[in-house]
Amino acid sequence: MGKIANNFAKRILLQTLFWLGVWFYFMYFFSYSSNNKDFAFWFSICLMPVTMITTYLVTGYLIPKYLVAKRYRLFALYTSYTLIISSYAIMLSIFGCFIILSEVDMDNMPPLSRNFWFVLALVYLVVGAVSAVRIMQLGYRNLNKAQALEKDMLQRELFVKDQELSYLKKQIHPHFLFNSLNTIYSLSVRRMENTPEVILKLSNLLDYLLYQTNKPLVGLDSEFAHLQDYVALEKIRFRDTLIVNVDFDAINDQISLPPMLFLPLVENAFKHGLVRDDKLQINMQCKMEHAQLRFTISNTADEANTISGGGIGLSNLRKRLKLLYPNRHSLKTYYEAGKYLAELQIDEPKKISNAEV
Q: Residue 92: CA atoms inside 13 Å, Cβ hemisphere, count?
């Protein structure tokens, strides 16, 4: 309450000083070329009510209610009424002062007070100046409101994106764990001796999932090391039926990207790959060319069994890429000459969306 009272008192003081300044402004002009200071004094006082009423009516009611609201026709109409009525009031003030103060003697009136158009212009100059300041004040206030609303909307959008990304990242873990457990189950059914080794590698991968994927960005070399661990795990499962060619020319510890970005593509290659002539062949390649990261993976496949659009992993990846690299990525999957290919391109991978940071 104390702050509100102080602001109100400050506003009253400023307005009082302003209107005192207007009164001196009137006094200056009406005293010009005249020795009748008393007439100028009282004539200025008589003009103050109509000046104040007109000013407050225009700035406090017409501008906010009609001009700012873009109701221009009504603003023009009511402003015209205001000008007509205020002009009539100014005319009455001039005649009243002529009768009362000058005792119907034209020589007792200061020269400028006799000119109706000059008095009218003097009053409307005050009204116009205050109106211009009021319009700029309201425009600045509306601009601040619009900027605050835009900022709030942006923060909400970023929050929604952050929540969606968090949800998508959490989906990766059970999906990966599901595929890995299937691998272990397959080995245990066959009572393979290297089952403990697979469990150990899986443990290392889960350690990566638990502690590294919580970071917004990881080094490209760290991500590729994780992929190689996964490939080693799959080699144990497929044994002699697997051929994997890896070409990672883009390994660079200075390049960072969101974790688990390539894993869905690698998982699909093993999960949906076709063993042809007793071999499942998978080729992986990653290159960095002209600020563009290119990751390509292919696996032997049968067109009839090729997944269209991908499963949960690919769908999840497409959503993450859309949030992380809007309009700066390309993900294509297609079948060609006995192989299923996935090509991922990211322009300027270092520039990541704020939603992930």
A: 8
Q: Is 65 left (phi over 0), alpha (psi -120 to 50) or beta?
A: alpha
Convert the pLDDT of each residue in 3-35 to its tens digit. Answer: 677 777 888 888 889 889 888 888 888 887 777
Pull the structure tokens for residue 350.
Answer: 């270092």
Residue 179 amino acid letter: N
Residue 108, judged by CB atoms within 10 A of its CB (0-12, 13-18, 19+), counts as middle
d(CA 76, CA 98) in angstroms, rounded, equals 33
Quick: pLDDT tens for 202-242: 676 666 666 665 677 888 888 888 888 788 877 877 778 88
Q: Cα separations (Å) of 249 from 246, 262, 287, 288?
A: 9, 15, 5, 7
Residue 242: beta bridge partners?
Answer: 280
In the three-class reduction of DSSP (H, G, I as helix; E, B as strand; rest coil), residue 219 is classed as strand
Determine contact, residues 339/298, Cβ cutoff 8 Å: yes
- The answer to whether the CB of 231 falls within 8 A of the CB of 244 is yes
DSSP bridge pairs for 332:
343
The answer for residues whose C-beta is within 8 angstroms of residue 144's C-beta and 6 or more apart is none
| Of the candidates 239, 231, 229, 232, the residue with the CA atom closest to the CA atom of residue 193 | 239
Contacts of 94 (CB under 8 A, 6+ apart): 113, 114, 116, 119
Q: Cβ(192)–Cβ(167) under 8 Å? A: no
What's the pTM? 0.51
Q: Which of 46, 16, 19, 14 is nearest to 30 (CA)?
A: 46
List of residues 6+ apart from 7 with CB closer than 8 A:
none
| 3-state SS, residue 226 | helix
Dist CA 192 CA 177 (whole Å): 20
Contact indicator for 272, 306 with CB cutoff of 8 Å: yes
